[in-house]
Model the fold of this input.
Amino acid sequence: MAEHQWLAEKFEENRGHLRALAYRMLGSASEADDAVQEAWLRLRRSDADAIENLGGWLTTVVSRVCLDMLRSRTSRKEEALDAQAAELVVSKELRSNPEQEALVADSIGTALLIVLDRLDPAERLAFVLHDMFAVPFDEIATILRRSPAAARQLASRARRRVQGAPAVPKASLMEQRRIVEVFLDALRRGDFQGLVAVLDPEILVRIDEAAARPGAPREIHGAQNWARGAIAFSRQLAGAVQPMLVNGEVGLVWSPGGHGLRVLCFSFADGKIASADVIADPSRLRELQLATLDE
Done:
């Protein structure tokens, strides 16, 4: 029992670092928690006495777990939504506790996450570990099972892509409202092409656990994939769906079938919806600041 408690205490000392790493790798707070929990399970099954550098060992484990999750996500990238999966809408993931808010303050905003999501898994891991956590290329190479030179090339290629991404100016509230109203009008009319036109081709839609149905994907990539499912789901939309200010930006709020509240948060870039988050968890909904839009 004493040994287990000591191991748990040492793990908790590293939890903040591990979660920050996993969030930057995955761009999803819930998936970051899953990756950290998997690291704890693997630690419990391991011979802890044989681990010389626990922090380094845990960093390696979390990195490889995240790498597997990213590769699995990539393999599902072309998967279209069905009627059940279309309920996806997401959140400003990082509002539920101080640790999550620190991630936002640490410059991991929506714009950067969008760019990171366009890197392949190995590039993202090399860039995040080296440029954000100062992990040496020798260690990154071990995690990726490649040579240090290959790891350096991956990070360099990712850095060029990140630095070469255009700045994303924040849309005005008037522009946000126009975009959201176009989106909602196309959704109500079942206009597939209209939906695709207002979505960034590489849009990332993440799913609040409370909003996801059993077996439905927790993330959707691509405008056409999301639009297909959204059209199927649009028949369930009630007239009460309305644009509102959600934490100071324009989003959508509604109560599907009169049961529970759902909030759809957006980010915007170049006149389109760049990412979307669905919030249905009551504890997370309570963290949101909702306000009506002025005419």
In short: The domain at 2-78+110-163 is CATH 1.20.140.160 (Butyryl-CoA Dehydrogenase, subunit A; domain 3). The beta strands are 199-207, 219-221, 242-246, 249-254, 262-269, 272-279, 290-291.
